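Quick one: structure for this chain?
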Amino acid sequence: MNSTYSKRRPFWTGERRNFALGMLFLSPWLIGFLIWTVYPLLSSLYYSFTFYDLLRPPHWIGLSNYSEILTNDPDMRTTVANTLFYVGLGVPINLVAAFSMATLLNTKIFARSAFRAVFFLPSIIPAVVIAMVWGFLLNTQYGAINATLTAFGLPVIPFLSKPDLAKPSIMLINMWGQGTTMVIFLATLQDVPRTLYEAATVDGANAFQKYFNITIPMCTPVILYNLVMGLIYSFQDFTMPWLLTGGGPDRATLFYSLYLYQNAFIFLRMGKASAMAWLMFVVIVALTIALFRSSARWVYYGSSND
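Got it. Here's what it folds into:
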C-alpha cells in the first residue's frame, strides 16, 4: 500500500504549488507581453502581405508590398539615401563625441562633477522639449543663434531650411544629447587597470601611446555595444527629424522612419508600412550580426590567463 501511494503523487505538490503561484504573479506581465508585443508583432507580419487602409478589412496581396518598396517606389531611393547618410555619418560622430567627453571628464579638471552633470543633462530632457528649444535657436527669423550672427554683421545660416544643412544640423543636435553614452564610456574608462598605465610609463610610452594602445583597446567591448545601440536607434530615429523638419526641406530629412509613418498614418497604407518595418528589422539584424562577426578583429575581450 505504501508503494502504491508513493507512485501516485498528489496533484497539489509543493513544486506545483510554487510553480502555480509564480505563474500567477507573472501573469500580468505575460498577458501584457502577449497583448502588447506578440500580437502586434504577428499582426504587422500578416498586414505586410495585405492591402490594409485602416478603413476596410485587410485584403491579401502576397509580396506586392515588398515588391513595390524594393522596385516601384520613387521616394524609396531618396529615403534610403538619407537614412544611410544619417546613420553612416551620425553614429560614428556621436560615438567619437561621447568618448571624447568621457575621456575629458575622466581627467582631473576643475569642477569635474559639475561638468559631468551638465554634459549628462540633455539626455534626460524629453525629445519634444529638445526639438522645441533647438527649433527656436536655429530659426532664421527669430532664432537666438542667427540673431547673434546678425548682430555681428554675419549672414544668416538656414540650418533647418536648406537641404544641404538640414541633416548635419539634426546630427549635431543628436551629438549634443549623448549624455547616456558618455556615462557608459566614463564608467568603462574608470575600470581600465591602472597597472597597465604604470607599466607603459616604465617602458617610456607617452600620453598618446597610452591612449591609443591601452585606453581605446580596453574600451572596445563597450564601443561595440554603443555602436550597435546607436545603429538601432539611428535607423528608428523619428521624433527629432519629424518635429524639426517634418521630412523637409525638399525631402532632405525624409528618413526611413518618417516615410514609414507617412505611409501608415497619412497615406493610410498600413500594409506597406508594415512591410517597411519588417524590412528595416531585417536590415538592422543583418548589420548587427555583421558587426559582431567583425568584432573579433578589433574588439579586445582579454584572455582567460589575464
